[in-house]
Amino acid sequence: MAGGASMDKDKKGSLWYRLWDHRSLKEKNRLRSFIPYILYAVAVFYGIIYLSILNTINRERVGTTVKTWFGGDSKEIIQARQTEEREIKKSFEFLRKRVSGGR
Fold it and tell me: Could you tell me the pLDDT band of residue 39, with boundaries at 50, 70 and 90?
């Protein structure tokens, strides 16, 4: 019987017991009800961070066009894309601060 008492003492000293097992059933159910909200918050924050990274990476890229099976985009689409890229780069050059060394 002494072995059983020491097992209860070990169980009560464990991290799992201190965090979860000592709580009442009502308290456990209340805490479990927060799980969907926590998962939703993680998904939203991940999405915000992911989209901000994508926005930073793709800042100077012009929107992609649907390519055909035969030879890609037409000449008009390519010219329009190049014109738009030049305009975007020109606008960024105007906003950027000049630094020494021409960098």
Answer: very high
Are residue 50 and residue 70 in the same domain, yes or no?
A: no
Residue range 70-80: mean pLDDT, rounded: 75
Q: Helix or strand or coil: residue 101?
A: coil
Residue 78 to residues 64, 83, 85, 88, Cα–Cα distance (Å)? 11, 9, 11, 15
Same-domain status, 72 and 92: yes
CA distance 64 to 73: 10
Give the count of domains, the chain: 2
Residue whose C-alpha is closest to residue 20's, from 10, 9, 31? 31
Query: pLDDT by residue (tens digit) across 51-68?
Result: 777 777 666 665 554 555
Token pair, residue 72, equals 């890609």
- Boundaries of domain holding 89: 63-98
Task: Tell me the two tokens of residue 59.
Answer: 């800042």
Report if residue 4 sits inside a domain.
no
